[in-house]
């Protein structure tokens, strides 16, 4: 009831403010006639004439309010807080929140001591906001928000993160079925082959639990049907340890060892649960501030972090570098304007962790791979720990009856020399004597092999030359090293080709050395960039394989140029045989139109080692009012004409794709694909385009056609449901509706829902509290007497509205014909009148019915005002 009173006062004051803003009205100070209002229900205090004098300065009365409290743009909680009238000066006052000093500490704000307090008339003691330097309090009663700002030096970020966790949302119960069905038809000369492939993923959400089942189905012209169950898992998050547990069929981690498919349990760190600043590696920044200072961190001339620190030593870790490389410049600006600078060399690898971060992975279960060793039980454990700001340690083990492997590694940030990580794996493999050779001449006894694997990775960004050596890797495998899957393959009893060197033929196919290099060089004066990807493999059978990809990219005046060279060589050294080939190509693309729906044209010419030239011209573009459709047409020639056309469409119900291509006169192919999701919840069921792992269900209560901003397909159905895909788990998300799409016969008070923090895999409820009906603006004829502003209008049995200035009432009614009862109190007497409305004979103007109707007086009754 008190909330209704406050909203009434806000509405009335808003109307009065419009009236007072009318030209030719000049007032020295706003004054509201206390006799205009008298509100109360007998159960609580009724504000009398003296109480209403508060409105000369305040929009609302002091009292308890339920508000969203945010501190430095971080939402803390929704709670009741007392707002009191605080004097700004002798003539003005404003509402201020009442906090005790320990409440600030509870929120992670360390305010300076001693704290000045003020005593309220109701006996409460509150921190005096005027005594808090640089602290600000902004009250937004319209959105029920209290926005607090404090100097960054007073904030304890860990406590801010703790309060954010309280709003993690596991979502609503739901069943979903994701499907992806493809049909292919290929005709070569007179022979036609058709095939169908379907991928199905079903899932159930219940609280924090996630059940998932993945399977595939295929069918071909010969009538072969194959159904395969890929995995079945049950998982949930464990926020107290930033982890998740997965039960069922899953793959173990491949961070250190080769991943293994298991049927069992996995417990592992979920890095997304951590605050964003702890998700990537960054060295701590240390320094000394001579006074209260501002610390600014720049990387590649971009300001990436800024924080206030008190005088004395500081240590900063809550920042996020822009990339995996590039030195950082730290500026310390004191109150006197003096600036001190220092350079922090920085390069990162995936292996590196922030100081104190612990990532772990523990997998227990039976082998569930493609070979028949279902009895083999495997335990795998991996631990990665940030020992210091520059050193990360890693260790792991894989243990089973026939395989034992141990690993130890280290990652180091070398500062200006880059970052490096290295790890070694020692493996002991036990092989059984169950291999039958094709010639049946030999059968080995059981034997054991021991060997080592060594892996080295390096990364470095050379800032002066804009060179990024993102990854350079080297791997070495000794002759006795095998991974777990090798042992399972051999011990399964499968037949292999014979070998005079080793009973395991795959030994001759094993890699001895491997090199990988990825480099990007940015050229000066915006002349584009050059990229290189190089890989080299050396096998134990003396076979070598090299692959090189070199590219040059340039963009000028919206025209993109590309020159590419590709080389691939598979050499059998023992037979002096080489299968090397190369290709070189040039591509140019440009927009033909720069409108909302652009069309692009491109031309590509290439030449291969065989001397064959290839030319291709292509047009592609987007279509639809929300760019939900795309199309592509191409025509090419090498030794034959070839070409094709394809298109895709993202509907609210599914994603469709189809294409046709030909080569010469004897080869033709047609393909079609449909993908989507069926979703069932307590609010109803609907079809949607393919969803991501974490999504939101938009509910507008049977109001259809409403679109969501930043989504090409999220449009509510006739039942008022839509799915907003792709929320970020454990991060703040916001969903906004397109107000232009709201039908004329509907209203939504708040079209933006913010502070959505879903857990991974959740389906979040986004209920926009939509209302549907006829919009009316009634002008009441009071039958000779004035109906005061603030009078209560009741319609549709129990809905309420309030009379504004000029006897006008705005309301949203579900009925075309109805009655409005108006009640108010004057001089202690309750009065009322009744008005009728009929919309069947009236045309709406932009969805609004403008009606003037008589309000017939009812008998008055005495009423005593309580003071």
UniProtKB/TrEMBL annotation:
Signal sequence segment: 1-28
Sorted UniProt keywords: Cell outer membrane, Fimbrium biogenesis, Membrane, Signal, Transmembrane, Transmembrane beta strand, Transport
Broad class of where this protein is predominantly found: membrane
Location of the PapC-like C-terminal domain: 777-840
Chain ranges of the PapC N-terminal domain: 31-182
Cell location: Cell outer membrane
Its membrane topology: Multi-pass membrane protein
Any one Gene Ontology molecular-function term assigned to this protein's record: fimbrial usher porin activity
GO cellular component, one term: cell outer membrane
Biological processes per GO annotation: pilus assembly
Domain of life: Bacteria
InterPro entries: Fimb_usher (IPR000015), Fimbrial_membr_usher_CS (IPR018030), FimD_plug_dom (IPR042186), PapC-like_C (IPR025949), PapC-like_C_sf (IPR043142), PapC_N (IPR025885), PapC_N_sf (IPR037224)
Keyword RNA-binding: no
Family: Belongs to the fimbrial export usher family.
Protein name per UniProt: Fimbria/pilus outer membrane usher protein
Species whose genome carries this gene: Acinetobacter rudis
């Amino acid at each position: 009831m008190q909330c209704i009173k406050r909203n009434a006062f806000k509405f009335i004051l808003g109307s009065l403010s419009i009236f007072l803003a009318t030209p030719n009205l000049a007032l020295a100070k706003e004054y509201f006639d206390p006799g205009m209002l008298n509100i109360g229900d007998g159960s609580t205090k009724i504000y009398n004439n003296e109480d209403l004098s508060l409105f000369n300065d305040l929009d609302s009365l002091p009292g308890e309010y339920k508000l969203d409290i945010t501190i430095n743009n971080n939402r803390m909680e929704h709670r009741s807080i007392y707002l009191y009238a605080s004097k700004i000066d002798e003539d003005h006052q404003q509402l201020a929140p009442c906090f005790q000093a320990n409440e600030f500490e509870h929120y992670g704000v360390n305010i300076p001591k001693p704290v000045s307090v003020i005593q309220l008339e109701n006996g409460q003691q509150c921190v005096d906001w005027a005594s808090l330097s640089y602290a600000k309090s902004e009250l937004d009663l319209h959105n029920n928000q209290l926005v607090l700002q404090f100097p960054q030096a007073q904030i304890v970020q860990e406590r801010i993160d703790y309060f954010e966790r309280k709003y993690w949302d596991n979502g609503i119960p739901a069943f979903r079925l994701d499907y992806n069905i493809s049909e292919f038809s290929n005709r070569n000369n007179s022979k036609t082959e058709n095939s169908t492939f379907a991928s199905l993923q079903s899932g159930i959400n219940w609280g924090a639990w996630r059940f998932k089942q993945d399977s595939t189905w295929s069918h071909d012209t010969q009538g072969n049907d194959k159904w395969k169950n890929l995995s079945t898992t049950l998982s949930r998050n464990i926020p107290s340890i930033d982890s998740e547990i997965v039960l069922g069929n899953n793959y173990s981690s491949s961070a250190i060892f080769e991943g293994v498919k298991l049927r069992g349990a996995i417990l592992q760190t979920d890095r997304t649960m951590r605050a964003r600043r702890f998700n990537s590696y960054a060295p701590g920044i240390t320094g000394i501030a001579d006074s209260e200072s501002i610390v600014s961190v720049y990387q590649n001339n971009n300001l990436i972090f800024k924080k206030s620190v008190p005088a004395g030593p500081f240590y900063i870790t809550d920042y996020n570098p822009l990339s995996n490389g590039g030195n950082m410049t730290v500026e310390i600006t004191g109150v006197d304007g003096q600036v001190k600078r220092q350079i922090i060399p920085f390069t990162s690898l995936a292996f590196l962790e922030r100081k104190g971060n612990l990532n772990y992975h523990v997998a227990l279960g039976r082998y569930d791979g493609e070979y028949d060793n279902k009895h083999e039980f495997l335990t795998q454990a991996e631990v990665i720990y940030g020992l210091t700001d520059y050193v990360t340690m890693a260790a792991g083990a894989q243990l089973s009856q026939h395989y034992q492997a141990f690993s130890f590694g280290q990652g180091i940030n070398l500062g200006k020399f880059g970052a490096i990580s290295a790890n070694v794996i020692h493996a002991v493999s036990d092989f059984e004597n169950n291999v039958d050779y094709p010639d049946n001449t030999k059968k080995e006894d059981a034997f054991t092999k021991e060997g080592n694997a060594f892996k080295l990775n390096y990364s470095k960004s050379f800032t002066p030359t804009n060179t990024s050596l993102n990854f350079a890797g080297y791997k070495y495998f000794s002759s006795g090293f095998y991974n777990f899957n090798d042992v399972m393959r051999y011990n399964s009893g499968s037949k292999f080709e014979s070998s005079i060197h080793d009973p395991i033929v795959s030994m001759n196919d094993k890699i001895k050395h491997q090199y990988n290099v990825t480099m990007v060089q940015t050229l000066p004066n915006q002349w584009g960039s050059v990229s290189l990807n190089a890989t080299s493999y050396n096998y134990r059978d003396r076979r070598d394989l090299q692959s090189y990809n070199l590219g040059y990219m340039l963009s000028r005046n919206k025209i993109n140029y590309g020159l590419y060279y590709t080389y691939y060589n598979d050499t059998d050294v023992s037979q002096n045989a080489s299968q090397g080939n190369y290709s070189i190509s040039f591509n140019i693309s440009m927009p033909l139109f720069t409108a909302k729906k652009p069309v692009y044209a491109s031309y590509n010419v290439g030449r291969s080692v065989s001397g064959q030239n290839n030319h291709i011209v292509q047009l592609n573009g987007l279509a639809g009012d929300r760019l939900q459709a795309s199309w592509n047409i191409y025509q090419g020639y090498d030794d034959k004409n070839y070409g094709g056309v394809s298109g895709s469409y993202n509907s609210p119900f599914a994603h469709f794709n189809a294409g046709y291509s030909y080569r010469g006169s004897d080869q033709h192919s047609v393909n079609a694909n449909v993908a989507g999701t069926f979703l069932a919840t307590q609010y109803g069921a609907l079809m949607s385009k393919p969803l991501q792992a974490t999504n939101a269900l938009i509910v507008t209560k049977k109001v259809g056609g409403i679109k969501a901003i930043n989504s090409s397909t999220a449009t509510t159905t006739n039942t008022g449901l839509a799915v907003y895909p792709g929320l970020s788990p454990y991060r703040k998300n916001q969903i906004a509706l397109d107000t232009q799409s709201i039908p004329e016969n509907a209203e939504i008070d708040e079209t933006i829902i913010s502070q959505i923090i879903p857990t991974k895999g959740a389906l979040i409820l986004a209920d926009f509290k939509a209302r549907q009906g006829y919009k009316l603006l009634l002008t009441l004829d009071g039958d000779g007497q004035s109906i005061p502003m603030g009078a209560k209008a009741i319609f549709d049995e129990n809905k309420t509205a309030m009379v504004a200035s000029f006897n006008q009432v705005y309301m949203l009614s579900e009925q075309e014909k109805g009655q409005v009862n108006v009640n108010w109190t004057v001089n202690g007497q309750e009065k009322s009148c009744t008005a009728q409305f009929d919309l069947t004979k009236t045309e709406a103007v932009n969805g609004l019915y403008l009606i003037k109707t008589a309000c017939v007086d009812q008998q008055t009754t005495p009423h005593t005002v309580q003071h």
